[in-house]
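Backbone-to-sequence.
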C-alpha cells in the first residue's frame, strides 16, 4: 500500500500502478531488505550483470525468477544444523531480493561460483524501436512521391 504522501498525485495517473508500487517498495526499504549486498556491473552499452554476495549458500539454496519485469532472487538454508556455534557471523537466513527490469531487459542466465551469484542481463531493443536513418527524398511503398525530380 502506498503512503498518504502519494495519494494525491496517484489519482491523476491511471494505469501507472507499477510505478507507485515501486515508489512504495523503495520508501519502505530497511537494512534487512538490503540483504544480501549486491553490485550492478555494466560491461558495455547493452550488457549488465547483477552480483550478489552469498557466502555460505549453495546453488541448491537459491532460486532466480523473472516475472512481469521483476527479477526475484530468493534463498535460504535449512536452519537445522548439528553444529554448535559460539559466534555466527555468516548469515544463512532466508531472503528475497527484487530488481525491477526495464521493458527491454532480458535475463541471459546466472552463474554461482565462490559465494558470488552473477545474473547476466542484456538490453534487447526490438528492430521497430531502434533509431533509424530516414533517407531524404525517399518514400515508402504505396505512398505518393512528395518531391519530384526535375
Amino acid at each position: 500500500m502506498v503512503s498518504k504522501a502519494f495519494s494525491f498525485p496517484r489519482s491523476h495517473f491511471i494505469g501507472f500502478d507499477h510505478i507507485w508500487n515501486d515508489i512504495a517498495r523503495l520508501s519502505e526499504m530497511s537494512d534487512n531488505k538490503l540483504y544480501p549486498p549486491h553490485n550492478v556491473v555494466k560491461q558495455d552499452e547493452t550488457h549488465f550483470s547483477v552480483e550478489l554476495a552469498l557466502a555460505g549458500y549453495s546453488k541448491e539454496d537459491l532460486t532466480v525468477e523473472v516475472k512481469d519485469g521483476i527479477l526475484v532472487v530468493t534463498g535460504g538454508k535449512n536452519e537445522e544444523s548439528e553444529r554448535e556455534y559460539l559466534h555466527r557471523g555468516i548469515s544463512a537466513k532466508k531472503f528475497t531480493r527484487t530488481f525491477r527490469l526495464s521493458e527491454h531487459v532480458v535475463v541471459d542466465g546466472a552463474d554461482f561460483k565462490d559465494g558470488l551469484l552473477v545474473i547476466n542481463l542484456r538490453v534487447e531493443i526490438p528492430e521497430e524501436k531502434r533509431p533509424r536513418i530516414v533517407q531524404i527524398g525517399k518514400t515508402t511503398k504505396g505512398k505518393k512521391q512528395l518531391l519530384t525530380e526535375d
